[in-house]
Amino acid sequence: MANKIFVDVVVKYDAEGNIIPLSILWEDGRIFEIDKVVDVRPAPSLKAGGQGIRFTCRIQNKYRYLFFEEPRWFVEGS
Amino acid sequence: MERVILHSDLNNFYASVECLYNPKLKGKPVAVCGRVEERHGIVLAKNTLAKKCGVKTGEAIWQARLKCPDLVIVPPNFDRYLKFSKLAREIYCDYTDQVESFGLDECWLDVTGSLLLFGSGEKIAQTIRKRIKAELGITVSIGVSFNKIFAKLGSDLKKPDAVTVITQENFKQKVWPLPVEDLLYVGPSTCKKLRSIGIFTIGDLAKTDVKLLGEYFGKNGVMLWSFANGQDQSRVSNIEATHTIKSIGNSMTMPRDLVCDEDVKVALYVLCDSVAARLREYNFYCTTVQISLRDNDLYWYERQGKLNFPTCSSTEILSRAFELYKANHKNNKPLRSVGVRACGLVSADTTQLSMSPDFVNMEKWQKIEGVVDKLRYRFGHHSIMRGILFADRNLSGANPKDEHIIHPVSFFNGF
Ligand SMILES: [Mg+2]
């Protein structure tokens, strides 16, 4: 689906086993640093079609959902 | 003490999951259909819009299309259904450890022991209903009652995304006017017989002389009578949803014919590895191994054999599979395709432990293979390989796990 965009993600596994996404590598080569993860919960993506752990990320002062749908990561396209 | 039982039913389960994964299906009548080429050209599930057109589970695709020309046919994705079934079960397990699965989409929960912690049965049901919607993106309907039969009945009364409470006080108003076939275990033939003696509603059944029912229907008659009167005492047992999966198997047609034992072993290794990985993923052990062989004249046969103890170890499955091959493939004809299937599945959680050396050795292997699963998950399938697989990369290069076939007991909805 056009608006389910699978992306490369740099992830930190902390000592407690938490998964923290650090940056998203866009398909055109751009890298988006994630300033902060403000919310983590299991959720569906009604827009892109899927379900996984949803990270609400602050990227360049905008909030964006990043989904971990094992074993892949995706973002919702517009 | 009165029990508090919930019956939770994922609405239009397969179709809901498919619609969630494909937002373009929104607003269209959708049917999930078994693959035509595999003879199962039939409707396995449908969404509400398709239901409105009269599409029925179990009918052929062409029949469904006659009633609903715009019907969108999608193939089933059992992996997805297993994932959602498991996720729903995990939510249920937050409220009680007594969860009994009935197919992939239904569960009974005994929450009697959780009331102090979480509030009334209705409150727990509402919490679960909201969580399923928010976390999974599909809906459930939940029946709350003092026995399993009425809880199940309740989950059918209002749907989707709803909770129905049936109590000692209101069951005569809510349940008794319903047609008798709404009762669990009243199938078409029982229903016909009941009607022939003037029993049309559950209330009719409840008020019939139990002796008469015993004479007509034997023990079942007495059981149904007690159900109708709210006297079902059956317990919520701890049965894994995954019991509805009968076997996990995989087969491959080879890039070249297998001409010697070594070739066959490489192919079996690849298949057994993938079958075992899937067993571990779904928390199963298998008790039986089945192989299927097709030679270069396309003659095809299957053989199966029991294992000494339940296992999810690729090494154990492989050695049994190879034994079966050696014992049965006497003519040594080159093989075109091979398959391995793990059958007689049991839940890994409830499997009895044994202290025999074989078992201890097997456990060791299972641990090693679990580590391999993790490595592959993080670094890709080919990041770690068995030495034997380098004998011929043509034969071993495939990653068969993604093409796995899973066979639930029934494509239909139980009763
Ligand atoms: Mg259902």
List keywords for this structure.
heterodimer, A: 78 residues, three-stranded antiparallel β-sheet, 8 strands, 67% strand, B: 415 residues, alpha+beta, MutS, DNA mismatch repair protein, domain I, Dna Ligase, domain 1, six-stranded antiparallel β-sheet, 16 helices, binds magnesium ion
Query: Main sheet of chain A?
Result: 5 strands, antiparallel
The separation of the N and C termini of chain A measures 12 Å
Radius of gyration of chain B: 25 Å
Number of helices of chain B: 16
Low-confidence stretches of chain B: 401-415
Named at the architecture level, the CATH assignment of one domain in chain B is 2-Layer Sandwich
Layout of helices and strands:
The complex is a heterodimer of chains A (78) and B (415).
Chain A: E1 4-6, E2 8-13, E3 19-25, E4 31-33, E5 36-45, E6 50-59, E7 62-69, E8 72-76
Antiparallel strand pairs in A: 1-8, 2-3, 3-4, 5-6, 6-7, 7-8
Chain B: E1 5-10, H1 13-21, E2 30-33, E3 43-46, H2 48-52, H3 61-67, E4 72-74, H4 78-92, E5 99-102, E6 106-110, H5 115-118, H6 121-136, E7 140-145, H7 148-157, E8 162-165, H8 171-174, H9 188-196, H10 202-207, H11 210-217, H12 219-228, E9 245-258, H13 261-281, E10 284-295, E11 300-311, H14 314-328, E12 335-343, E13 346-347, H15 357-379, H16 393-396, E14 405-408
Parallel strand pairs in B: 2-4, 7-8
Antiparallel strand pairs in B: 1-6, 1-7, 2-3, 5-6, 9-12, 9-14, 10-11, 10-12, 10-13
Helix pairs in contact in B: 4-6, 11-12, 13-14
The structure holds magnesium ion (MG).
